[in-house]
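Researcher: Sequence of Glycerophosphodiester phosphodiesterase follows. Predict its structure.
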Amino acid sequence: MISLKNKLLKRKRFWIPLAIIIFIYLNNSSMLTKQRAGEPLLLAHRGLSQTFHTEGLKDDTCTAERIYPPEHPYLENTIPSMKTAFQMGADIVELDIHPTKDGKFAVFHDWTLDCRTNGKGVTRDYTMEQLKKLDIGYGYTADGGKTFPFRGKGIGLMPSLDEVLKSFPKESLLIHVKSNDPEEGVQLAKYLSTLSAFRQSKLAVYGGDKPIETLHQQLPNIRVMSKSTMKSCLIPYIAVGWTGYIPDACTHTELHIPEGIAPWLWGWPDRFLNRMDEKDTRVILVAGDGSFSEGFDTVEDTKRLPIHYTGVIWTNRIDRIAPIYHKNLKK
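Model: Prediction complete. Tokens:
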């Protein structure tokens, strides 16, 4: 009798873990979920911009001083570069904003004006009218300062957020709040609240924890993302997502997933994307470990994507990537 009980106990010790493993596999395998169809969406980082080498790159590196020899005439975060990006096939364009002295938002990437422009200091020290007088192409060089191919060509090209939204009334935009100042969240929420519900639905905002939290409290219908919102969604999902449970924090948000982390998410890729679709959450895949806005910028880069991937692809070279998916034929 005791021997029989021991045998049953041993069987349970074997079969229960095996059953759990089988359940986890079946519940998270992309082969056993609804097959996704269609092409990925393309996000053009800063529109169509001049790219640069990333060797030894630091947070305070002046990237305008290390660009590759120009292959096109466009400068990042300008209306011409965004317009061209959409024409080439971008589904979403990302842009950076900073506050100005007169209560507006300037569309500009860097923390200071010193690197790219002939100005000094920060945007909040200037009115939008004064910023328009700067040459945003002043500091670009591909040969260590011997020549400056865009000097004199960027005067008047720094747009305000208002100009961008008026120029692209129906397109999808991803707005980057560069600081962690909660007052910028208040200011941006106040401005975006004046837009129509349709226009708000085509916008998403990401940035520092404090401004994003403030903005979300005042405009909960706008899709947002910060390190805090990412952690609130992904940490519990990684812990128990194998059961199929999706945390409420994953609802109507945005996730920027580095390609090195993505395969460790339960159900990646198809089942994970389906689960996020159910929660109205947008998944954007970024290259490498996600540092310094790495993108899928070459044909070779796209070969690392999962087969039939239909989420969003982050790219710094929409001109190279869109033709792969024939996106440029849709315009």
